[in-house]
Amino acid sequence: MHSSNEKLTSSIAVIGAGDVGASIAYSLLLNPVAHDVILVDLKEELLEAQVRDLGDATFRGNAGVRVKKGTFEEAGQADVIVITAGAKQKKGKLFLSTKDMC
Predict the structure, then answer these.
(1) Strands (DSSP E) along the chain, which ranges?
(2) pLDDT cut 70: percent of the chain above it
(3) In DSSP terms, which residues pair with 66 in a beta bridge?
(4) Closest Cα to residue 78, out of 47, 37, 48, 44?
(5) What is the Cα–Cα distance from 84 to 16, expressed in whole angstroms?
(6) pTM for this model (two decimals)
(7) How far apart are CA 78 and CA 90, in angstroms?
(8) Where are the domains of the chain?
(9) How far is 39 from 18, CA to CA, in rounded Å?
(10) CB-based contacts of 45: which residues, under 8 Å, 6+ apart?
(11) Strand 66-69 relative to strand 36-40: parallel, antiparallel, unpaired?
């Protein structure tokens, strides 16, 4: 946790804006450790909705944390990257390839 007079400058990217990714992003708003929380997801509609909802949560005045949607390239520039993206397992498959996730 940072002191109230300390300015946050780092960024955290969360890959995957589903339930887990959105929960992590919300936790980062409640306990600010970075200035920017960058959400990235292939599902554009889901991503837009989560960014809007989390943006509403920042209204409570939480030390200047900003939530924004981003690209994989932007996420690659973040100080910390959290990968929550995944796909539901298909019956009979232990692991999925990236083509199964798209």
Answers:
(1) 11-15, 36-40, 66-69, 80-83
(2) 73
(3) 36
(4) 37
(5) 5
(6) 0.77
(7) 32
(8) 11-101
(9) 10
(10) none
(11) parallel
Strands (E), 44-90: 66-69, 80-83
Structure tokens at 102: 């798209």
Angle of helix 19-30 versus helix 44-57 axis, rounded to 10: 20
Confidence of residue 92 (pLDDT cuts 50, 70, 90): low
Residue 13 contacts by C-beta under 8 Å, 6 or more apart in sequence?
A: 37, 38, 39, 40, 70, 74, 75, 76, 78, 80, 81, 82
**Cβ neighbours of residue 27 under 8 Å, at least 6 residues apart?**
none
- The HSE-up count of residue 43 (CA atoms within 13 Å, CB side) is 16
CATH number corresponding to 11-101: 3.40.50.720
